[in-house]
């Protein structure tokens, strides 16, 4: 039992980012028990199935179920056909610990587990079927398929046994078996009819005579829809649970840049900045269970961290406030420390659950008295006040329906530095030093505790998002260490997730037992988002480093993406390769959600690439893509805020900012830094130095007239539209003024 002046909490602050803990306590007078970090010896497993040979952490969790699981692949498909058994796809965890259910499944079905992050194509297709047949969707998903992979029954959660009006999995299985044996033809024909209807109902195509919708109207409608869903007190959109939704924030910041003088532009900026401030007080996880960003779902996803880092650095560029830049740096510091592989790749996530530890030596945390503070103030007093720590816990019962956090504290910044400093009679600068000391001590103690499970899967798409984050934040801050880390990430992608012999991106790779990078056999080919997000990251990396090799690879990847995924009849990109015979549907993602849709990012990529490669066919392809989604953009643009941003860029026409000068010269660096200090969503940035720009000059012959190769004069900048350019500028202040007024 802890003393009265101790308080226990579950999170350790790292400036603005959070790390999951398992019950640390701060005490000013009483010692407390700390975890030793010791682990119990592993117990032998009663069951082991084929998933034990997989690399996916999710699949490995089910390797010792009493179910004869197969991974998605040809071995399972062949078995289903040979034995003429229906396939059971995926499902929930608790039911598969049940021995009786395990026997029923293994004896009568071919059971397949899918990691939806490894195979988003499989998940998307069969979730679409579940939504159509059950009236709703969600995970865990359960679908029954014929041996030729046609779904005929689907649902979400089934408890092991019957509960009130909800049938248990055992009951469901017996009914499906009965129907399969006695009414199979009806099941199969019903499934075929549903797939045919879905094939028609999910089609996204450009209607004959359709045109790209008017960007100002679409942007205005998107803004109004976001206003209607905005929650004013704590920011964010809709009530709890609240998701970070960086795509919404990036739209609002872009909307502001073209509407600065209007009241709506000011409102958009206020909505974005207020949301970002409120989120930073509570930390970044997959979502918050309450409206105030206090109690999160304790899971940190790589795609969230990447997009939030970009959103915060963008807020800093727009507002000039260093607070937002500090948050962006803190996010990347966390990623570098806890989600990075030595090969240069990034891991997918830290899980929600952490195994508690017990026992260990007695320790005290933060007992030091603070000199100069009012009264008898300890470091613990200041920490607990600032982060809302209470002796009885700070989580309200309605925030904790399962009672898992009763008597515990989840840290959240409750007061501004100015208010906390005034409360204890210290300066703001001194307060910052004290809180930094407290956090460092907490972090050291946390290292002795078991960490949450780390998902060491490395996905090309999410690594592409994080590549963008390091490049964007590094260039905005002029931080060479961040830029070096971005280059490492790009090298990782090219070495481990690109197959040059087949000209194919690979979906994923994994950390091996000896910390080496491993692949599954056979490797999973990349999907549309793998190409689109990596291309975007490479374009950002070029603008941050001016290494044209990244542009060349981006062009190569875009050409390959066009070959694999482009719909030449209806326009837009399919999510997966049309040649895959295992999927009954070909789908196009039409929503920017936790991640932007790959079609939205592709629209941006096509525009940007067309301006640095001179390929005008990509301008036309971008217009065709936007036309395919015109109905969605016109009616519910809030579903595609990232695509609305691309539509705005297409409307305003990207500006080419050309810097002519030696790459390592101070005057060149000053002009580049000026560009990078601003948020310019409708621009591409190029450097012509006469030495390493041969790729650009070969694609854009007019560059040689703008920046003669032999020119060794002072660095200068030109702002061009279709290479009709401003007068060259050598003064960074004049360049800043020009850029600020050109809707770049």
Automatic annotation (TrEMBL):
Signal peptide residue numbers: 1-21
GO BP annotations, alphabetical order: carbohydrate metabolic process
Keyword Membrane: no
Superkingdom of origin organism: Eukaryota
Annotated InterPro entries: 6-hairpin_glycosidase_sf, 6hp_glycosidase-like_sf, Ssp411, Ssp411-like_TRX, Thioredoxin-like_sf
Keywords: Signal
Residue ranges of every copy of the Spermatogenesis-associated protein 20-like TRX domain listed in the record: 48-198
CDD domains linked: SSP411
PANTHER family found in the cross-reference section: SPERMATOGENESIS-ASSOCIATED PROTEIN 20
Protein's name in the database: Spermatogenesis associated 20
Organism: Neogobius melanostomus (round goby)
